[in-house]
Amino acid sequence: MAEHSDSHGDDYRKNSLSLWGAVSLGTGVMIGAGIFALTGQVADLAKDWFVMAFMAGGVIAGFSAYSYVKLTQAYPSAGGIAMFLSKAYGKGSLTAIFSLLMYFSMVINESLVARTFASYSSQVINYEAQWLIPALAVGLIAFAFFINILNNEFIQTFSFVMAVIKALGIIMLAIGGLWASGIDFESISVIPQDAGAGGVLAGVALSILAYKGFTTITNSGDEIKEPKKNVARAIVISLFICGGAYLLVTLAVGSSLSINEIVQAKDYALAEAARPVYGKIGLWITVGFAIIATVSGVIASAFAVSRMLAMLTKMELVPHSHFGMPGSIQKHTLVYTVVMAMLLAAFFDLGRIASLGAIFYIIMDIAIHWGVFRYLRKDVNANPIILLTAIVLDVVVLTAFIYIKWESDPLIIWTALIGIFLISVGEVIFLKYKRETN
Fold first, then answer.
1. Which helix (H) or strand (E) holds 46?
2. Which ranges does the record mark as transmembrane (predicted)?
């Protein structure tokens, strides 16, 4: 392992985040890019139950949050997911494998948001070409890289301001859309007509991605004032705010478009929903908010993901090479993260990117719950029934999602399996080599 100076630890400042600062951080990550990217994707799976799928995803995220809250209360730290996993499984291959699944799900999410930016931006560009969307997505990731090599204060301030703008904008558009459409929900039903139970559950699995940003709050651990009390409050408040925003947005889309229209425009469903309600001006406004949401989302994501890989590097759970690059480890991991995100954004469409992210994230989430249940529940004073419920819910939606994708797009499942296999084998070999050479 190469030796380099690294200053990223200076980013952590105890008691630097208030309760509402933490809430702003969580909602800023969750609201925006996820709902822009996933509304049409979830509707494609859950059909006229897509609103219910988003709400069910919020419920499952609430059960999932329980483990993270308990862990953060017991071990308030900026160490994040890798630190939690190491507490449960030790500093070995299981911690490394599940941490990398989380890392790659975050890289995939970065690509998802970049591809969403491209899909929405293309709606106001009078030019059609197959290369346009991947080119726009890769360009945004490159822009995020250059922003991320600036100072951290600029990144944090920029991300916070953009989070406020996009949250207020999305809620405003949703309420306006509902009012203008007469609150008529023709494409929404409480009885699934076009989708089977498997499709609805698969939609729920995908919708979980729109809520997983609450882990950003747990990663802030000891940066939050009175973490033992305020981390839990921040997560609960953030989930309620996001659930309310998602309910408004999905109802607004369902009142403006039929299910077939939502599915047909699934990569830019919110922009399409604005056309009949607001006309061309509404389309431009919606695309503008989408651009704000996705640009700020990719910048924040690149920053957080590179920090996570740098942390895994410092824990000596992953190999590291500087390839002749100057600077800190975090700058190197930023380069690796950006390159991987560019490749995904260039060669995978939105649906496939989102599917990979859902599979990796839910598997990691199950590992967190099982680790707490099996090894830490007494230490963190966790309720075993809630932990087991979270595991069962994750397993059910993941199983349904894999089944539906195996029937419709087996390449996604093969890609996920190969990815997990390569991560697992690579980690076992690396850690064995490291033990033998120490």
1. helix 33-46
2. 17-37, 49-69, 89-109, 129-150, 157-179, 191-211, 231-253, 281-305, 333-350, 356-373, 385-406, 412-431
Q: Is the sign of the CA dihedral 402, 408, 412, 414 positive or negative?
A: positive
Among residues 385, 220, 239, which one has the least CA distance to residue 303? 220
Going from N- to C-terminal start, the domains of the chain cover: 9-431
Q: Which residues contact 431 (CB under 8 A, 6 or more apart)?
A: 92, 93, 96, 317
Tokens 């100076």 belong to residue? 5
With CA atoms as reference, report the closest residue to 342 among 187, 137, 178: 137
Tokens of 213: 């940003």
Please report the DSSP string for 349-403 in residue order: -HHHHHHHHHHHHHHHHHHHHHHIIIIIHHHHT--HHHHHHHHHHHHHHHHHHHH
Buried b (16+ CB within 10 A) or exposed e, 178-194: bebbeeeeebbbeebee
| Neighbour tally for 325: CB within 10 Å | 11
User: Is residue 400 a contact partner of residue 205, using CB atoms and an 8 Å limit?
Assistant: yes
* pLDDT means over runs of 10, the chain (438 residues): 41 61 72 74 86 92 91 74 88 91 88 86 77 89 82 63 74 71 56 68 90 76 71 86 85 81 77 73 79 78 76 81 67 84 85 88 95 94 96 95 92 94 93 82
CA–CA separation, 36 vs 249, rounded Å?
9
- Candidates 168, 172, 162; CA nearest to 29 is 162
